[in-house]
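Course assignment 3, question 2. Fill in each field.
Student: A.L.
Task: Predict the tertiary structure for the chain below.
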Amino acid sequence: MPIAPSRKQQTHDRIVDAAARALRGGGFSGVGVADIMKQSGLTHGGFYAHFASREVLIAEALERAGRDAHARMQEALDRGQAQGFSRFRTLVENYLSEQHLNAPEYGCAVAALASEMPRQADAVREAAVARVRDLVADVRDALPVGHADDAASVIASQLIGALQIARTLGPNAQGRKHLALARRFLLEQFDAQSPS
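Answer field:
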């Protein structure tokens, strides 16, 4: 029987969850210690009982965001397969979805933060690199048999870039059209179930 997390661990997890949402929704600068603690129902002074620094919190928040996005994608892949869709189609359609366009705070941390990642402290960059590797692995696992493993990193780049451009265009007809074009292109190129 699993041991229930302690009250301190529950509080720690609540802080990390709030930081993960803030990170994806507002970027690295959107993770202010005072705001995160307030969102968690705590005072600013309690922060250092849980984290040595803001960078430690951000690295944990990136890890949590990646784990949460991966779990949501795995659930979507399972649902898609149960409905007869390929894993690749399901991944592309979920990643380049209107929901992902509209709610970055619940989506992929890589798409939300890619342009900011190189300028972060070492511990944060290491966590960011791990998120990129996880996304590439998810794409690799979803690719139909017969495609080179190297294609996964290019496809991951296309997914991230398409979502970032759509978000720049906005959650409107232009942004949605861009996502639809990117979905169609990727599925035509890499999904055996797509009509030619």
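Instructor remarks: The radius of gyration is 18 Å. The chain has one domain: 7-190.
Grade: pending
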